[in-house]
Specification:
Layout lengths: L1 E2 L5 H4 L2 H18 L13 H13 L6 H9 L2 H6 L24 H7 L32 E4 L19 E9 L6 E6 L5 E6 L3 E3 L10 E4 L19 E12 L2 E9 L3 E7 L3 E3 L8 E3 L2 E3 L8 H17 L3 E5 L2 E5 L13 E3 L4 E12 L2 E6 L11 E12 L7 E7 L2 E6 L2 E6 L6 E4 L2 E6 L2 E5 L9 E2 L4 H4 L3 E6 L10 H4 L3 H4 L4 E2 L1 E6 L2 E3 L1 E2 L5 E3 L4 E2 L8 E4 L2 E3 L6 H4 L8 E2 L7 E4 L2 E3 L6 E7 L2 E7 L3 E6 L5 E5 L4 E6 L2 E5 L6 E5 L10 E7 L17 E4 L13 E4 L19 E12 L2 E9 L4 E6 L3 E3 L15 E4 L19 E12 L2 E9 L4 E6 L3 E3 L11 H21 L3 H12 L27 E10 L5 E10 L3 H14 L14 H4 L2 H10 L8 H11 L9
Helix pairs in contact: 3-4, 12-13, 12-14, 13-17, 16-17
């Protein structure tokens, strides 16, 4: 990061000015000292270069560049318009035409001149010593900010402009095009490049900056980098003041700004696209003596409070001995979003000679927060020194998955970190303190609560991912340039990191004392995340003292029981150090607690479970995994004065039966894991797991017998295997088998079979009740009754979907007593097309009214109508049509299915004439009655579609109603839709008006057929 006190010339001088001076000297020095162009030779103006090139090409290559130079340099007008460009030279930087008169010849001029095809459109020879002045003034003046057009192709001398399209620069000089027809401009860009012959047509004005000097602005939440590549991510959400602005060509911005922040930091090249109007005002601190009170806000975002803290730390860097006081309450900190160490988001830079003290302060980490102490030199003590951090409560916003907080130190001296708490901010594989080369420091009376909640349920450790398990809350390391100890993070924010870490520096004289490393528990005392520990695992360390600390339920705690001498312990350092002082630490609840359950097996209480006993630490020569087995790991089972010692097998599994001698009324037992292996680093520590209290099932007799009729309780949730019982609530069935099980409040589970053939195989005893149920009334329908599925039917009693069969008409073929929902019976219903539903509840049926009361309908006609009625209902229900209209048309058009057109092989029920239908398989020519405009009938022969089946006849009819006739631009029958017509009567009128038939009484005939035969009962919604 760049602070205001930086004095580097090249960091304070604008880049375009540096380029200007550099190139000015590059041209001026040779002129002064007499080499390069002749001192008494007039400089060729930009217009003259173009002019000389024209003349040279038009004179058949006979004119030399010297001639051109002498010809143009004597013109007062052109000499007056010649001005130096931004680089300090007046010759065209993109051309070689300006050379010494005694070294130029016609061939060199030809070689460097643009090709004729790229010259300006005026091809008339101009041998005049002067240029004509255009009739209108130039559009732009010297000093104007202009932009190269997006369609620009070349300068007037043919030089390629395409690479500079949309570039923004400043007009340095203006000259007329040689024939006086317009202007060309010398345009300089702030990065030092320039174009000297830009035609006016290829320039446009430039938009004003959005923000003004002195305006308060905010770095956008999406900002990535400044235009020079400098990282903007740590400053997202920061509010500062614009100090200066300048044009910029690139990205989506035309301006860039220099921003100064209240905390002393600055960003010099912020693109306009990365700024927004300030959405908040950083609160001013309250300063009293050495106390600097940060006025955080509980409504601020994490990045906003970060800026306030960084401001305080900058102040402290200028005022040694500052006590930064944080207020009471809950305050967001860090950058929102997922943890990402590849990003510098949430970055805070610490300062020396500083105290950060909380006053019942809870810092809520939202996303990630990374506090860093940077190295200031090669020595280990060259870093953040005399730094105190106390009385802070750092807590994750997400207390289920945790959030990421870390304090990193590259070198440093005399850190005092005490009386803080860190809750659920130690994520998988990370640390809370990552200390490289720290010296003479103490960490005491802190609480580290919860580590990597996602690892709580891991059943077996694979050392290929070992760091995820033994990552320390306090990691001591050696700082170096290998970028391993800090995961290559420091170099992202400190350009001097490589220089300061040229020598490896071990952490030395560090004391870790009287801290608590605790699991994170829920309100009921259940472990949500185990704790972690302290140590080193990648580099040597110096004098280290770890004493008086408490470790409760650490994730890694039994290292020496499974892999002697390595990292899997709450306190782990490489063996062989004489300078280690590890004493008087207490380890309680050594992981892993046995995972056990108890159930009744043949009325005996059987306990099964598992515990981790092995760690994968290599690959055998045959390619298989090599596991280290702890032969001393045991399970101790206790109950009052009774105990058992169980030896788990090689995979960690164990099983035992609670002895009958302990009593049938024993409600629970306790289990814990222990080992006789010793840890050489902390052999006085106690190594055993916490007690696991396990409730035992009570052996009782089964409440229900095989063959007994039972009913599913109204509150039943699921079977013991998780299958939902909710749809079966109230069902009556018969028990066909049973078995003991310990499930919730039940010791038995049952298989229940129902009259409809369905079964539940794992019904807990608590979800059943004895039943003597019998139907209270006779069935509403008998075998042979013509019934119709109701329009609101959902499912059969076995869950089968009834929606596609709504309004279908069929015959009852079977009746069964069945208690379900509002029904006491279920029915088997068979339809004319052969389909059937076998478990239709009584509540979902009604007596069919189709053809009821109709006179003169023969049995053949009835049979024919029933054979097509359900096809019509299905087609209507799924296409927003009226089934009654469809069937009435089929009756009229086919004569109850008896016309030649309706009979096989034609199968055309709707009189649809031949067209390019995807459903037709041909056509047939038959006589048909039509009506003229006066309603008089006449007979003609016409071609009609034929179909392979009656169903395709329905499909073609529906296609015409929904999509219209082939070749028509719009659907003529759209107003026949049920949602538009609103009634079958209106649909009948609409279909006649749309030209379906020429009979003037067609709509009345349709309505008459519908009402005579009760076809409208099929339209129930």
């Amino acid at each position: 990061m760049r602070l205001k006190e930086e004095t580097s010339l090249f960091k304070s001088v604008p880049r375009y000015l540096i380029s200007f001076v550099f190139f000015f000297l590059l041209i001026l020095v040779p002129t002064i000292f007499g080499f390069g162009a002749s001192a008494d030779t007039n400089v060729i103006p930009n217009t003259s270069v173009t002019q000389s090139v024209k003349q040279d090409n038009q004179a058949d290559n006979t004119a030399t560049s010297s001639d051109a130079t002498n010809s143009t340099s004597t013109s007062p007008e052109t000499a007056a318009t010649s001005q130096p460009n931004v680089l300090g030279n007046t010759a065209d930087a993109n051309s070689s035409a300006a050379s010494s008169s005694d070294s130029s010849d016609s061939s060199s001029t030809q070689q460097n001149a643009p090709q004729p095809g790229n010259l300006p459109s005026d091809n008339t020879a101009n041998n005049s010593d002067t240029n004509e002045t255009p009739a209108i003034p130039s559009k732009f003046k010297v000093g104007d900010i202009v932009q190269i057009s997006a369609s620009a192709v070349s300068e007037s001398n043919g030089y390629n402009l395409i690479p500079h399209r949309n570039w923004v620069g400043k007009v340095l000089s203006i000259s007329t095009v040689s024939n006086g027809s317009g202007y060309e401009y010398m345009v300089s860009f702030y990065d030092g490049e320039h174009n000297d012959h830009v035609l006016e047509q290829d320039l446009s004005g430039y938009s004003d900056p959005v923000f003004s000097v002195g305006e308060k602005v905010e770095i956008g939440s999406y900002a990535q980098n400044e235009s020079n590549g400098y990282d903007l991510v740590p400053h997202r959400g920061w509010v500062g003041i614009i100090i200066s602005q300048q044009p910029f060509s690139g990205s989506h911005s035309f301006w860039e700004y220099k921003i100064n922040f209240q905390n002393g930091y600055e960003n010099d090249y912020v693109l306009e696209q990365d700024l927004v109007p300030a959405s908040w005002e950083p609160a001013a601190p309250t300063i009293s003596g050495n106390d600097y009170h940060v006025n955080m806000s509980q409504t601020n975002s994490g990045s906003q409070n970060d800026q306030l803290l960084q401001t305080a730390l900058y102040y402290a860097s200028q005022h040694p001995g500052t006590n930064i006081q944080l207020p009471q309450g809950n305050y967001s900190m860090g950058a929102a979003g997922p943890q990402n160490l590849s990003s510098t988001a949430g970055n805070i830079i610490l300062s020396s000679n500083t105290t950060i003290n909380g006053n019942q302060t809870n810092l809520i980490v939202d996303g990630q927060s990374i506090w860093v102490g940077l190295a200031t030199g090669l020595r280990a003590i060259d870093g953040v020194s005399n730094f105190t951090m106390s009385n802070l409560n750092v807590k994750a916003k997400d207390l289920v998955n945790g959030n990421f907080f870390i304090v990193m130190a590259d070198h440093g001296n005399n850190w005092q970190v005490h009386d803080n708490s860190f809750t659920m901010v130690n994520t998988e594989g990370e640390h809370i303190f990552d200390l490289g080369g720290i010296q003479n420091s103490t960490f005491s009376n802190n609480k580290f609560i919860g580590y990597a909640p996602n690892l709580k349920k891991v059943a077996r450790l694979d050392m290929n991912d070992g760091h995820d398990y033994y990552a320390e809350a306090i990691q001591l390391d050696a700082s170096s340039n290998n970028h391993v100890w800090d995961a290559d993070y420091i170099s992202k924010i400190d350009s001097d990191s490589a220089e300061h870490n040229a020598q490896t520096q071990e952490s030395n004289n560090v004391t870790i004392s009287n801290n608590q490393f605790l699991p994170y528990l829920d309100d009921h005392g259940n472990v949500l995340a185990y704790s972690t520990g302290v140590g080193q695992h990648s580099t040597p360390v110096g004098n280290i003292t770890v004493t008086g600390n408490l470790f409760v339920n650490p994730l890694v705690d039994w290292v020496e029981t499974v892999w002697p001498g390595h990292h899997l312990a709450p306190i782990h350092f490489w063996s062989g150090y004489n300078s280690l002082n590890i004493s008087n630490n207490t380890v309680i609840g050594v992981f892993p607690i046995p995972n056990a359950s108890a159930q009744l097996v043949n009325n005996q209480r059987v306990v099964t479970g598992s515990v981790i006993t092995a760690v994968k630490y290599g690959i055998r020569s045959d390619g298989s995994d090599d596991w280290y087995i702890d032969p001393n790991l045991r399970i101790r089972v206790t109950q009052a004065g009774n105990s058992l010692t169980i030896v788990p097998n090689s995979t960690g599994r164990f099983t035992f039966t609670v002895p009958v001698s302990w009593g049938w009324d024993v409600p629970n037992i306790s289990l814990y894991a222990f080992s006789s292996s010793a840890d050489p680093l902390n052999s006085s520590d106690i190594w055993q797991s916490s007690m696991e209290n396990l409730a035992l099932p009570v052996a009782t007799g089964a409440k229900f017998q095989v063959g007994q009729q039972v009913q599913i309780q109204s509150f039943a949730g699921t079977e013991t295997n998780g299958y939902s019982l909710v749809p079966r609530r109230g069902w009556v069935g018969t028990i066909v088998s049973r078995q003991p099980i310990n499930y919730s409040h039940s010791q038995w589970e049952y298989r229940v079979t129902y009259a409809n053939g369905n079964n539940n195989f794992y019904v807990a005893e608590q979800d059943l009740t004895a039943s003597n149920w019998q139907p209270s009334q006779p069935a509403a329908f008998q075998v042979g009754t013509q019934v119709q599925v109701r329009s609101y039917a959902q499912t059969e009693s076995n869950g089968y979907n009834l929606v596609p069969h709504r309004n279908w008409v069929g015959k009852v073929t079977a009746v069964r007593a069945m208690k379900d929902s509002n029904s006491q019976y279920e029915y088997s219903v068979t339809y004319a097309n052969g389909q059937h539903n076998d478990h239709v509840l009584e509540q979902d049926l009604q007596t069919s009214q189709l053809l009821v009361g109709s006179v003169g309908v023969s049995s053949t006609q009835q049979q024919w109508l029933y054979s097509i009625v359900n096809d019509a209902v299905t087609a209507a229900n799924t296409n927003d049509l009226y089934a009654s209209i469809m069937l009435a048309q089929a009756i009229l058009e086919s004569g109850w299915g008896t016309s030649d057109l309706a009979l096989s092989p034609n199968n055309n029920l709707f009189g649809i004439k031949a067209n390019k239908s995807q459903f037709a398989n041909g056509s047939v020519n038959l006589p048909t009655t039509e009506y003229d405009e006066n309603g008089r009938p006449y007979t003609i022969n016409a071609d009609f579609n034929t179909y392979s089946s009656i169903l395709n006849s329905f499909n073609d009819y529906v296609d015409k109603m929904v999509h219209g006739l082939s070749g028509e631009s719009s659907n003529r029958y759209s107003n026949v839709a049920r949602s538009i017509a609103g009634s079958y009567a209106q649909a009948a009128i609409n279909i006649q008006q749309d030209g379906y038939a020429t009979d003037p009484s067609y709509s009345h005939l349709l309505v008459s057929v519908i009402e005579n035969y009760n076809l409208n009962v099929l339209d129930a919604n």
